[in-house]
Amino acid sequence: MSFNIYDLTEFTRSIDSGLRSALSPGWAQFAELVIIGLVFLIFYALLGLFLVYAERKVCAFIQNRLGPNRVGPVGLFQTVADLIKLLMKELIPIKNADQLLFNIAPFIVIIASFMAIAAIPFAKGLHAIDFNIGVFYVIAVSSLGVVGILLAGWSSNSKYSLIGAMRSGAQVISYELSVGLSLLTIVIFAGTMQLSGIVESQANGWWIFKGHISAVTAFIVFLIASTAETNRGPFDLAEAESELTAGFHTEYSGIKFAFFFLAEFMNMFIVASIAVTVFLGGWMPLHFGTGNTFNHIMDFIPPVVWFFGKTFFVIYVMMWFKWTFPRLRIDQLLTLEWKYLLPINLVNIVVVAFLTLMGWHF
């Protein structure tokens, strides 16, 4: 079994051939699915804990505080302690709630994020599902999360939950258009919807650099719209604590609340990963042109380091949004999308189609 940090294709193929030589084809495929599922479960849990800790530290830095610093070295185990507390909390039954929908809503939200994260290329050869319609698949499955939010709000038998869920539905449906159109910009440039193909098309330069001002515009619109779609500040109207207690998850406690909480952070990671994959080269190093010394130096950094480095930078920008800008009103939120972002996106699509037709991009 060979392991090359720069290309994991041979490593994953050797695991596949080892399982197929020891088991029947059906059992080998089943074993692969179980292994991939377990790896994603562990990755999901560890990343969620880290992002919660990172958000608290970033928030504290912006507010000139220390942040978590008591549990473990520099507060590293604070989120672990919080997770144990949530797991041990009593699940309080809600009077007159629709118990079936109330109980399955958190699972729908978290399963949607699991399905989306499976399509992300983390490094060369480290990609669970490589659909030829990868961009379309991610947009489709990530939209399923709002179904869980609407069910949670409706089934809770609470006016706060219902208003929060309706706000979230209006917000996600509106901003989904801008997210899809901004991704379509790069699909036109790259000529493919396959995420691995889009990454490969950036071997001689990331699309944000070689796509002219249109790619920069699409990237900015994507960042704003996807932040709104994840219900994070300054677009967190669905769970505005000063107006709606906690919005659509007001009545949830214990592990079910933890599912909503974890899904929010994982959705932030998914959005940042898609932004990096489509606009910032994915796991590709920073290259300018071909065959120069700068490119050779950049090639020494492993692809997985490039991917997570860029992803955490985008996540930091989204955290900075939340802790810097005040929360918008619902009319301001919808005005921003329908009067500004959507028209900008439509004009941008026409410009990109013209540039691609004329071959005027780098």
Textual characterization of the structure:
- This protein is mostly helical.
- It contains 15 helices and no strands.
- The protein has helices spanning 9-22, 25-62, 78-88, 99-117, 134-142, 145-155, 159-190, 195-200, 207-210, 212-229, 241-244, 254-279, 293-298, 303-324, 330-358.
- The longest helix is centred in the first third of the chain and has 38 residues, at 25-62.
- It is globular and about 65 Å long.
- It starts with 8 loop residues before the first helix and ends with a helix.
SSE sequence, one letter per element: HHHHHHHHHHHHHHH
Shape: globular
Range of strand content: under 5%
Structural class: mainly alpha
How many individual β-strands?
Answer: 0
Largest sheet: none
Fraction in helix? 55-70%
Radius of gyration: 21 Å
Q: What's the N-to-C terminus distance?
A: 40 Å
Number of helices: 15
Low-confidence stretches: none
